[in-house]
Design a protein that fits this description.
This protein is of the alpha+beta class and 400 residues long. It contains 16 helices and 13 strands. The strands form three sheets. An eight-stranded mixed beta sheet has the order 3-2-4-5-9-10-1-11. α12 runs parallel beside α14 and α14 crosses α16. The radius of gyration is 20 Å and the shape is globular. The chain starts with 7 loop residues before the first helix and ends in an 8-residue tail after the last helix.
Amino acid sequence: MTTASLPPHERARPLAKGRVKPARDLCSDCGLCDSRWVAYVRTACAFLNQQFERLEEKAHGRSRDLDNADELYFGVHQRMTTARLAAPIEGAQWTGIVSRLGVRALESGLVDAVLCVQQSPDDRFTPVPVLARTPEQVLAARVNKPTLSPNLQVLEQLPGSGIRRLLAIGVGCQIQALRAVQDTLPLDALYVLGLPCVDNVSRSGLQTFLESASRSPATVVHYEFMQDFRIHFRHSDGSAETVPFFALDTPKLKGVFAPSCLSCFDYTNAGADLVVGYMGASFGRQWLVVRNPKGQQLLDLVEAELDLAPVSSGGDRRAAVQQGIEAYDKAIRLPGWLAELVGVFVQRFGPKGLEYGRFSIDSHFTRNALWVRRHHPEIAEQHIPAFAKKIIGRYRLPAA
């Protein structure tokens, strides 16, 4: 076989580090450009070619029903539930459902490897994507790394590796690109475990955030924006710290998030088989969305180990979203005492469960639509998907 007759991903070589990527400033550093699958980037990249209907039809057999209130927000699904591990994994960010799934997928023989993200030995928050072959390697990836991560870079290792069945764990932009090249991968089976994701940053941007928000940025082990409208920090000495959303230094942080995240509309990871996150659950639990039979197959691996509870919903998000749009656009920062007071009020009377999920989606979609219209008006019409336009249309946005 001549080089010219090889498929594009076999002919192409990875781009050199530091080169300008096709998505330019919108690049989320998903890693596809650093693999031999770079030839597919212009059609696979979520920031060059939004294709939610095709993505959902390919992964689930149909696209979401925009007239179904739950599917409009949360995507195609067969089942939604909330859970926590009955026996939590030590050192996990919450109870460790994602890590346990990865371990069970290997132990059961469902897959040969798990694409997950470990950390640099020199820096807790520097991501190191790996193809984990053992439970120990999966467990070494526990705890979220809230920075841009080139997960798909490790696709380069697949040819000749002996890996024929893969579980890939990733966020929306990574999964959109992975689904686009799925049929060209040297795999017999692919399972996708998705994480809900918004507002990632570069490593330097993360440092700015930590120094602005935490009392001890050097000792933060992990953090999460949680359903009680507070950021929960865990420190290396085991202590916890919480900060109200409303106390953040918005003027300083407004420009810290990656442009890719400010132009993303895949918060709920529409292309995954199974999604595990916190956004639609009550505090202390995880929200699980089974999108297709493969997703249920993954959940079957751990369901007997879970404390399950139905999803619930309460409160009304709409006024809080509208007020948040205006406050963010004007970069308003509340005094500490007022931020605490607002936080207590919203925690008690604000949206909960699935309604909190809708609050978060509404807040981010309206913000991101405005950002795209201001910074990339030439792509706004085709880049903002139909489901996001329907959600955004319920609110008054400042002029672009």
